[in-house]
Amino acid sequence: MKVTKAVIPAAGLGTRVLPATKSMPKEMLPIVDKPAIQYIVEEAVHSGITDILIITNRGKGLIEDHFDRVPELEARLTSGGPEKEKILKEIVDISHMANIYFVRQKETRGLGHAVNCARSFVGKEPFAVLYGDDVIIGEDPACGQLIRAYEEFGLVC
Questions:
Q1: How many whole angstroms separate alpha carbon 8 and alpha carbon 28?
Q2: pLDDT of amino acid 121
Q3: What is the pLDDT, as a whole number, of residue 156?
Q4: Which long-range CB contacts under 8 A does 66-72 form with residues at least 24 apart?
Q5: Per the CB 3.0–4.6 Å rule, which of 21, 44, 56, 85 could disulfide with 60?
């Protein structure tokens, strides 16, 4: 069975990087010019993932906003002339990378509990879990390598 779904637990409190995470989710901390979680989603998409569930909790609304459309910003960029076209395309493309869904973890009870919140999303299908703050950048995405290994060898217990 092909792996097309991914779960990204992003409900942690970010205590290891305080005070930076007091008012901003650690997944939204920028790496160069985009938030860490965007790199994670891009890795999943480049690995063949089409459906992504991000597990959040209270205070993580910025993550949902990042992957949503912003009509006011898009209108401003559209009226900005040809020099704004590239950034407009980048902004719009963020919301079209994959089918991105969100579930809120009501209480932070650890990684296992967070992944279990995805049970109805994944059903009995194989799925990838990518951590919302572990960025691995390379020519061949790590997630894609794992998916190919699964497809070749299946589930090994």
A1: 13
A2: 97
A3: 60
A4: 66/28, 66/35, 66/37, 66/38, 66/94, 67/41, 67/94, 67/95, 67/97, 67/100, 68/95, 69/95
A5: 56
Q: What are phi and psi of 41, to 5 degrees?
A: -65, -40
The whole-angstrom separation of Cα 12 and Cα 148 is: 29
Q: Write out the H or E segment, with its range, that includes residue 99.
A: strand 99-104
CA distances from 97 to 22, 124, 131 (A): 29, 24, 18
pLDDT in tens, 115-138: 999 999 999 999 999 997 888 888
Q: What's residue 157's pLDDT?
A: 54
Domain holding 59, by residue range, is 5-153
Task: Mention every residue, 6+ apart, whose C-beta is less than 8 A from residue 108.
Answer: 11, 12, 13, 57, 114
Low-confidence residues of the chain: pLDDT under 50? none
What CATH number should be reported for the domain holding residue 14?
3.90.550.10
